[in-house]
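Hey,
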Amino acid sequence: MKKISVAIPTLNSETTLDTTILSLKNQRDVEVVIIVVDSGSKDGTLDICRHWNVEVKYFQAGNMYGAVNEGLKSSSSEWLTYLNSDDWIYPDSFSRLISYGDKSNADLVYGKCDFTDVHGRFMYSFSPPFPNQLNSIVRTGRLGFAQQATVFRNCLYTKLNGFDVKYKFSADKDFYIRALQANATFSFLTGSPVSCFRLHTKQLSSTKAELMEHESKQINQCLVQPPNLYDFFIKTNWQLRNIPNYLIRFMRQSMLSERIVLARSIYPGFHIE
C-alpha cells in the first residue's frame, strides 16, 4: 500500500481541525501518516490530536512553513504534502493523485480544488492550467493550482531543501516555481476535485492579503523572467476555459450572501483573477 505523510501546522485550530483530520483518516487505499505541528495552541487543538491519536510536534510561532518543514523533515514516505488546519481532502483523493503520479512518473501531481464558505458550503471550483502551460502562467505572476490539491515526492522535497522559511506567506509558491526550474515532472489529475479550501475572514489570504501579494511579487522578481505576449495568450486561454466556473462563483456567492457579489478567486499565496 502506498504511503503519504501529511503535515498540518496549527495554532488555536479547534474549530476546524476535526474535519481536517477526519478527512485524512478516511482516505482509501493509502496509508496516511499525520503529523500535527503546533505553535502553542491555548484552545482545544491538542485535545483533538489526542482524541485522534495523532502525532504532535512543536514549532515556535511565526512561520507556518517552518512548521511544515518540521513535520516533514524526517518522513520516510515516498509522497508528501501539507494541509492547512481548516481545509480537507476527499476520501479517494490521495489514492487518485498518487496512482496518477506513479502512472505518469511525476515528481508532483496537482488536481482541482473546491472552495467553500466558513461553514463548508460549496462556493466554486477552478480548473488549473495544464503542466505545459505552467511556466507561462508563472511568468504572468500566477501559478494557478492550489497547494491543498497537490502531492509531491519526498525526493523532490529533499532536493529543493523543503520550503524556504524566509517567506512567511508564499513559500509554497516559491517551492513550486523552484520545482519547475529544476525540471521536475508535473502532472495534472483531471476529473473531479480532490480537496476543499475553506474561505473565511481569519485566514492569511484574508488578513494578510497585501503582504501575501507583495511577497508573491518578490518571488517572481527573484525567480521568474518577465512575461511575453505568448504567456499572456496562454493565461487568457486558461481564463476562458474557466468561464463556467466564474459564472458558478458569481451565482453561488451572490446566492449565499443574498446580494450581488463580484470577488477575486484566491488560491493560497497566489490569485486567479
